[in-house]
Design goal:
There is one protein chain. By secondary structure, the chain is mainly α. The protein is about 70% helix and about 5% strand. It is built from 7 helices and 2 strands; from the N terminus they run E-E-H-H-H-H-H-H-H. Helix 1 packs antiparallel against helix 2, helix 4 packs antiparallel against helix 5 and helix 5 runs antiparallel to helix 7. The radius of gyration is 16 Å and the shape is globular.
């Protein structure tokens, strides 16, 4: 479910969860994007993240994580390893790892994402404050 703002009043809009057909469509789009701009282009990385998001939402975490990692490699080359897009991918990897119970690796990815985000935005920024999954992961690892 997504909230959209129409005028001054937000309203709910139903958003269908992805299914296998959506993933196939995204993969076809990924192939077309690779042909158009190449495998090292930032737009290809964004499309790769879209496919990974669909896989993650379908519970195919073993397929999602490598796609996020590939996107990180591409984005790091064009924008640097300390950009917010890399932090976002690291955070998504951490969520996936957390869901499969790999808390040590998840904690490492959460920390990397948080370090980049704090470095870029500062401790008080809303993006830093809204990273509650990291604290949940930390509690599970240390308890």
């Amino acid at each position: 479910m997504v909230f959209e703002r129409s005028g001054s009043t937000p309203h709910m809009v139903y958003q269908k969860p992805p299914d296998s057909k959506d993933v196939l469509r995204r993969r076809a789009s990924l192939t077309a994007m690779a042909t158009a701009v190449g495998h090292d282009h930032k737009d290809f990385a964004k499309e790769l993240i879209g496919v990974a998001d669909h896989c993650r939402q379908l519970g195919k975490l073993d397929q999602a994580v490598p796609k996020y990692e590939d996107a990180i490699k591409i984005i790091s080359k064009s924008s640097g390893a300390d950009c917010l897009e890399v932090a976002n991918c690291l955070h998504k990897i951490a969520i996936a790892l957390h869901h499969v119970g790999d808390f040590d690796r998840a904690l490492n990815k959460y920390k990397q994402a948080l370090d980049i985000t704090v470095c870029k935005l500062g401790y008080e920024h809303e993006e830093v404050v809204r990273l509650p999954q990291a604290s949940v992961c930390v509690r599970r690892v240390w308890n």
